[in-house]
Write a structure and sequence with these properties.
By secondary structure, the chain is of the alpha+beta class. The protein contains three helices and eight strands, in the order βααββββββαβ.
């Protein structure tokens, strides 16, 4: 069994998460008046909220495990060390290649419902290619897709194509 673990959020978001945790600890130590929590509980709720958001940003992880004996790939997503979901992808017995297909998506957002802005997202889909068609493995970013394809190449001896 081979595994690959990774953080779901990019480095910038994890840094923001650590800053949120630091702000939360600072606020809990210096800003919260514990003797007057009956009337002024907002600083406590704010500090706990920043701490939880920071913990979510820093601890949200994904893991891909390849089980060659069961011929399946298990995708797990965890936060705070607890398993949120598990997805199982059966490895087709007649798969001869792994395909990485790049996609460019356009999104549109609005700031306070008035000012519109557009943004581009680039993602990759990984597929097992068989004689009958393709079986989707995962949708992820390009670097992670290549790492997963390399892992599949090592364990299943399947070449990959971009």
């Amino acid at each position: 069994m081979k595994q690959h673990s990774y953080s779901l959020f990019p480095v910038l978001f994890r840094i923001v998460g650590f800053i949120g945790i630091g702000f939360s600890v600072y606020s809990l130590i210096f800003n919260v008046e514990y003797s007057n929590l009956d009337e002024a509980y907002q600083p406590l709720i704010g500090a706990v909220g920043f701490g939880l958001m920071g913990l979510i940003l820093t601890t949200f992880k994904g893991r891909i495990s390849i089980h060659t004996d069961k011929m399946q790939i298990i995708k797990e997503y965890r936060v705070f060390g607890f398993k949120l979901s598990t997805d199982i992808v059966k490895i087709p017995p007649n798969a001869y290649q792994v395909l990485i297909q790049r996609k460019s998506k356009k999104g549109r957002g609005y700031i306070q419902g008035v000012v519109g802005f557009g943004y581009n997202l680039e993602s990759c889909d990984l597929f097992f290619v068989t004689n009958r068609g393709a079986v989707r493995i995962i949708n992820t970013e390009y670097k992670r897709a290549v790492i997963i394809a390399e892992l599949l190449k090592e364990t299943l001896n399947l070449d990959y194509q971009i």
